[in-house]
Design a protein that fits this description.
About 40% of the residues are buried. The protein is an alpha/beta fold and about 350 residues long. The chain folds into 3 domains: about 45 residues, no CATH class; about 200 residues, Rossmann fold (3-Layer(aba) Sandwich), CATH 3.40.50; about 60 residues, Arc Repressor Mutant, subunit A. The longest helix is centred in the N-terminal third of the chain and has 16 residues. The chain is globular, with a radius of gyration of 22 Å. A 9-stranded mixed beta sheet has the order 1-2-6-5-4-3-7-8-9, sandwiched between helices. Strands 10-12-11 form a 3-stranded antiparallel beta sheet.
Amino acid sequence: MRFRRLLSYFPNMEEAYRANSADLLQAGIEEKIVSEFIAARSGLSPEKLMEEVLAAGISLLTINDKEYPERLRQIYDAPVLLYFRGSMAELGNFPLAIVGTRKISHYGRMVAPKIAGELAEQGIAIVSGLAYGIDSLAHEAALKAGGKTVAVLGSGIDDQSVYPPPNLRLARQIIDSGGALISEYPPRTPPLRQNFPHRNRIISGMSLGVLVVEADLESGSLITAKLALDQNRDVFAVPGSIFSSASVGPNNLIKMGAKLVSSSSDILEALNLSEALSYKENKKILPDTPNEAKVLERLSYEPLHIDQLVVLTGLDAPAIASTLTFMEMKGKVLNLGGMNYVLAR
């Protein structure tokens, strides 16, 4: 919220960063925060910080970038800056958060992968927090189904900061599969306890809804569910045994009006996403010629130069140029400038 005050007061964030105390106070920043910022600023080098970010293979998104998740942008306390590793492409159509306890029961071990895997097969991007338990099972099931998944962290997303550390391998699998690690915290930020409830607003904010599989009364998953309600998102819950402490949370959510879920189809129907798979299939770009087929095999949502396409496809430069021209006219590819191309949808 303080960033929003700065954005509305200063013409750009560079001027806000270099502002004196009087201007920061005038912008609406509290005196204590201004003093802390002025003191911390003297020991910071933005250029060095950017070098660390790039060296860790991390990309940045500001709230003004068009690639910034649109649903997340709409919440009242959206993070102004996101750090991410991996790809944000194809994650925005149908994201759903799946959260739950770290201390899962045998029942949770069966339910979470089943529902997460079925949703991922239907083109739903699974959003969770990379924690032990339900989070990890949801991510793993999405990967196994060949789907996309996003992990939102309460720490930095560099290898040294990923939390919990044993899930670094899972984090790398998410990146390699075309998913993403996301955080509002810079590299080397430790997993401080207060960060996790705060990051939960990102999990719910970028999602169509939140599914709680298992959670006790003290679970952070219930915080995510409350945030989802505040953000006007749907809340779903898997019912469980009245004798299980892990089912107290979901059962109470159902009492309060959360949608009871016994299968993935319950979620698809509630969100009017029964046609998600057909939507995904319809989004595929089909070639009209053999040359187009060769180009489509190589293009993705990451820019590729025409010279690289010549090498990868085995077609000569004139053939590639004419093929790309016709494909651009048909709305199949985009020229980003400098003869760099990506898929148009």
